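seq:
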Amino acid sequence: MTTTSKCPSPEVEWCRAALPQGQARALIVSAGNSNAFTGGKGRAAVQLLVETASARLGCAAEEIFVSATGVIGVPLPQDKARAGLAAAFSAEPCDWRALTDAIGTTDTFPKAATTSAMIGGTRVHLVGVIKGSGMIAPDMATMLGYVFTNANIAPGLLQQMLSAANARTFSCITVDSDTSTSDTVLAFATGQADHPRLESMDSTGADAFAAALADLCRQLAHLVVRDGEGASKFIEIRVTGAVSDESAHRIALSIANSPLVKTAIAGEDANWGRVVMAVGKAGEPAERDLLSIRFGGVEVAAEGMVVHGFDEAPVAAHLKGSDILVEADIGLGQGRATVWTCDLTHGYISINADYRS
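struct:
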């Protein structure tokens, strides 16, 4: 999965071209420099990386995948690329923590998760690592995420499962509504587990593996939001009663991306009027007098007005916590969606105002 940005990095373009052949031998990640919007120099740097790695490994260049994250507009220096690859090939095997530390930029903690699934009596393992803290919005985010498994699975099926998991996880998070030029999520399967190969969703164990993959992606997505730049609160937005799931998703994102909603929650203010505003501006079917809003499960607005006499104490207590639930029922249908975001604080400004310096 790669960014939907119309200004993708050369690394993203390389991955898009390489993905259809379905085989991988190496993943190269550079952090601190996104190599995006760098013209021919950026493309030449990617070519150097993949040709050097493929020659060293004795494989096709299309079996080398690349990612980059960091400042936009600065070409990846070829001398550093060569030195970095040489060091990587001569290094001793390291643990997952070393990988998560290496790929971070404004991240404040390493992000990784593990899970497992049973396939035909064999337990297979999945490990995921991810980086991301700011420039996070669906489709996907300033996010580099990698899933590794020993499952024996057909490349096309793994792609199908990852796409489905992405739609319910990484495409449902937002920190600041900005979509990066470098977003990439890749899944790698070694095929070393001793079980019948998963060829389709009808294969024994396919459902269990797909569920484990979706759960792993959800864990990783939540870690990104919890580490949102300057964030102090993790916010779950649930929308129900929309005319369709797609409509509910767009309404939920409108709420989650609203600076006014996010700052209200940062200030621990149950400002339901800002949620009403965000629903109304979403461009989706909604009826003012059917809308209801809840904070922490307590209904605070319904039938076109505030719920008179609602108990403010549990709402205030909920908003003082670190995990916040905001619900909006549109009252028009059965569509539902959940997205995750964080609050917006002064810390976000400080981090991004000082980023290049």
